[in-house]
Structure prediction request, 435 residues.
Amino acid sequence: MACAHGLIQRESVFTIDASSISFGEGAAAEAGPLLAARGAKRIGLYTDARVAKLRPVEIVKASLTRANLDVVVYDACRVEPKDGSVLDAIRFAKEARLDGYVSVGGGSSIDTCKLAALYAHYPADLLAYVNAPVGEGRRVPGPLPPHVACPTTSGTGSECTGIAVFDLVEKNVKTAVASRALRPIAALVDPTFTESLPAEVVAASGFDVLCHALESFTARRFTAREAPLTPDVRPMSQGQNPWSDLGSMEALRLAGKYFVRAVRDASDKEARHGLSWAATLAGVAFGNAGVHLPHAMSYAVAGLSKTYQCAGYPSEAPFVPHGISVVVGAPSVFRATAACSPERHMEAAIALGAETRGGSPTEAGEILSDRLIALMRATNVPLGLEALGFARSATDALVVGTLLQKRLVDNAPLAVDEATMRRLFEGSFAYGEVP
Ligand SMILES: [Fe+2]
Prediction:
């Protein structure tokens, strides 16, 4: 497989879109003053039915009330949002005439809130701002009302990015809107919120963290892209760069130290808080570098899965948690991408705690993949697509669904065609024992 190269006018600049992040116990109580300072008066609090009853929502609501803001609660955000649930959230935002937003929950609630704010403020058909070729890829016309994001899981990093993902049911595929305008004005990360999460949620969201960091660290270099005609159209997925490398590497080091501990022991606050910080750093990194193939594949996996149900998550309908749908393809992908940057793959494996067995750079892909598989075993997540209920006959549909994710596929260090994608999926069905 050839590494991507050969563009005409190469990029020479990278942009740091730094999120405003407040991290620490009590951070979420800053939502009210932040939104009041922006002149907002009527705030939509977006969350899901389960989180709506928990301490984080109570804290944020109290903060908004103390700041003399009107609060209307939308507690119907769907875990893994679908077009129907997004449309409902948009309808609510329009009817409530909101001029500020706060999201409290996992990435699903944060993403739903981003989309509600976008389409309530700049009404359009749902596919208008969705990335091409699935949607029209129209540019967001201008700034949005202020949105403060308060994550309750440590994984998605959505609080730091301008990306919102949802499931487009008619096409059996997940898709996204990506625009700097969607980035929350502040991420308020209280790591104590993660102390009560079920082990399965920590495992799934933790693999999302790992993959954000690994994919940002191994994406094509920003200099491999074509230079934009004007700076405002430089993509957020600009490729690995010196800024994203800092966040990616520290996130990997923290995940190597804390991930398994955080899954296995809810009382291990050091591990859960450490993973929360890793998630924040990885979010900053991928918000600037972009992710690539494991995420591209995950959108097809999640869109096509019909039967898998994961303990620890709401059980009304089967779905694959995002981090699981991402990590099932990751060992297969990194085996293939290692040839493009063996040293980076080796460095990542070592940060994650791999025994390098005195291996040479040519073994970096195997070593990193084996480490990921060992972590999957240690945290009890499904070891490949078969364990999610996929038959090998689903490969064609998985390949088609993945190649639709052009924004992510183009950010891979490899030149990817249908045959490459097929091989990556064929390597993802079942992972065996590792040395
Ligand atoms: Fe993700």
